Amino acid sequence: MNAGGKMIQWHTWDDSQFMPLWTTHYYDQVTKTLGGDETTENFYRLFMAPAQGHCAGNGVGPDNFGEENFVAISSDADHDIVTALQSWVEKGVAPKQLITTRFNNGDATQAVNLQRPICPYPLEAIYKGSGDTGVAANFTCGTPPQ
User: Domain extents for the chain?
Assistant: First the structure.
């Protein structure tokens, strides 16, 4: 933290191998130990991907945002987790969301089936109420209604 390091972690909500609540609990403990969200957000972001099982390609949700073994649909910081980290470290621009993509038949050479944002935990992608639910721009990151 004091050395200026940055970390982006991701996990899937539908992971059956490693329980997702372990990851959110860890994030919550880091936040509590360091004194709050603002301190933690300066160096650590957690992104929780919905409808994706253990490892990408398992599940019905979008699963490509440049993570290991995947080439991002675009090399910009919104679509590529590696570029997002690089932008944060080199330019001081922390990721506010990642756009994750699902291709037809899970094949990156085919058309995009849907895109959704994944948001820094504890925020979630919330549908704005109109437009195609397969288009990321029709969602915003926020706190879900209770």
Answer: 7-121
- Enter the pTM of the model: 0.86
Q: How far is CA 97 from CA 42, 56, 73, 106, 122, in A?
A: 15, 18, 15, 22, 12
* Interval 86-113: pLDDT, tens: 999 999 999 999 999 888 887 778 888 8
Instruction: Reduce the secondary structure of 29-41 to three states and give it as a string.
Output: HHHHHHCCHHHHH
Q: How far is the C-alpha of 130 from the C-alpha of 137, rounded, in Å?
A: 10
What letter represents residue 24's amino acid? T
Integer CA distances (angstroms), 138 to 23, 40, 64, in order:
27, 28, 18
